Amino acid sequence: MELLLVCPSFPDGAGSSFFPLGLASIASCARQAGHRVSTLNFNILPPAERLPTLRRMLQERRFDVVGAGGMSMVIDSAERIVQTTRELAPWAKVVLGGGLISADPLEMVNLLKPDFGVVEEGEVTLVELLEFLQTGREDFARVDGLVWWEGETPRQNATRAAIPDLDALPPPDFDGFGMAQFLDAMSDDFHDHHLTMYGLGRAMPMVASRSCPYRCTFCFHPTSRVYRKRRIENVVDDIARYRDHYRTNVFGIYDELFDEDPERIRRFCQLLTERNLDIQWCCSLRVNRVDGALLKLMRASGCFQISYGFESASPRVLRSMKKGIRPEQIAKAVQLTREAGICIQANFLYGDPAETLETLQETLDFQERHQLYFVDFSAVIPYPGSPLYHKAKQEGRIGEVGAFTRSLSPLDRYLWNPDKAAINFTALPDGLYWEKYLELRELNDANHRKRGARFVAGRVVGPAQSVLRLRCQWCEDEGEYPVVHPPGSDPEAVPDPNRAFVGVRGINLMCHRCRRKMHLPVWEIPHMAPLWDHFAQVVQRLTREQTPVVLLPAIDRHFRTVSDRVDLSGLNVRLVMDPRRPWWGQRFLGCVAQPFDAETLRQALGDDGRVLLLPAYDAASLRRELDRVGVAAHRIDDWRDGLARPLASEDGAQPGRGVRRA
């Protein structure tokens, strides 16, 4: 049969750092079974080319089956794949799978209307379904792991047994889904809000196991509940082969849990060393399964980062989450990992049903006691398929499943919905729950700044790139760090002023020596210094002259960051306006924030006032709104104006510290 497998985009309209390992494995299995398989990976294409490419493929070739799948967050993209296939290839059978279907099979199939849904692992189920379709069999109730239609009603068959021997599967079709393009699209430098690592960006994903033996309440295991592991020798063989084939020496082990058996990890490290593979790698482990000797062996074999699930330092909350760990085990793992010189990635989760102000304080005290300033707080989110999701659904708190699932991509839709706040599982009143979450988000940023990199010198090497000499506060090592900011920018292009909070967020760097994180404020970056210098001069002038100002918008999470560099407290604030409903009625710099209204704005400005446009998520739309209501450009002081200014500030002083142009 002619099969087309499509990887949806996540989130819609943006590239993804996730490679479709599951679909790549399914493609190989289908091809091994004798089917002709074509592939399309949306995530290696620019957003504007994704659907047109699919349309062209459907028009140029007659496919019998079109399949797609991924996490629940690809729902919008997957729906468009279904709709496009129905339009251009109405004869083709559409199959959806992955966590999107497995999390809530009947609901998702009924919503998205594919011909079939595949639950959990898809390799065997899809091949068996293709055989049924090829031979004309319609007794689909006999295919385990399948959701199918009986008239207008979706039916779910028995769960298929987990694939017992992962090494029996053929190698994934990495080339078909564009692994080379996926790696080429990645910068040599890795960046997210947790950490920036230079020279460790092109990380190839690998799988050494599937699922997880633990049952945390906030987790969902889309590849079944059975934890299975590949032979570690085969994993190392793959790394050796792919290192040469794809020209990369950085590997990310994507497993939910690399292993709970220290001996298997030791064997992995020994093989890497014996074969002199000279790679860098990272993985996820549990705090109760590591020891000092193992961690040192991991570091010697190239491990640069371990992701741990801390979640909480309250024994009560950890029991409620079914984590199976204790706070003292977290503390021990932190100590040993630091001693081994491996970077720690972890989060605390706020909002478990057992969370109280007291349990939260336990975690905050633990965080401060162990100087876990880069372990951020995140909200508990009832991801589809998790026990918390089913709890919320049973309690009638999910509402329409499709709308809820769509709200998770991007997560801002869920966490910052002005009409309905994120689900509060705690006994705290909703207002207090939300207030504490906002405080924790601010605390994340404030904690980062407790361990700042010590600036030594810096030079500009491009419009969006500088090289800095920094000293680590943890180990006192001094070294050079190339910095592209905003992250992901073209180093030779002036930073885009329309990016969200452009120039506000600092970056967290990994020390070359001790592998601990250190924070670099934006104003320490030479090519970004003019932005802050100009803004500071504008605020100082407005404060000195006591010019009446209308502020737009209020600053929430990033207020502390801005205040560390620029003092806004002396401004003569006449009005605060904000388009976001949650801010209406809240106080900011002594004024109560009001909705954006043209007439109110004109009255507040009068003949002598000015608008001060502050850092915002979508400053461009705010500026367009000011233009629309007729506020003259010369009466607007825009935070972003300093981006295009030369290094010398208006009064001739050089911005930043120790700055020079290369």
* CATH class placement of the largest domain: Alpha Beta
Q: Ends: how far apart? A: 60 Å
Q: Do you know the CATH topology of the largest domain?
A: TIM Barrel
- How would you classify the helix and strand content by structural class? alpha/beta
**Assigned CATH architecture of the largest domain:** Alpha-Beta Barrel
Quaternary state of this entry equals single chain
Tally of individual helices: 21
Biggest sheet layout: 7 strands, mixed
C-alpha-based Rg, rounded? 27 Å
Domain module tally: 4
Low-confidence stretches: 646-662
The percent range for helix content is: 25-40%
Task: Provide mean pLDDT, rounded.
Answer: 91
Form type? globular
Strand order of the largest sheet: 2-1-3-4-5-6-7
CATH superfamily membership of the largest domain, which one? Aldolase class I
Q: Got a strand count? A: 30
Strand content: 15-25%
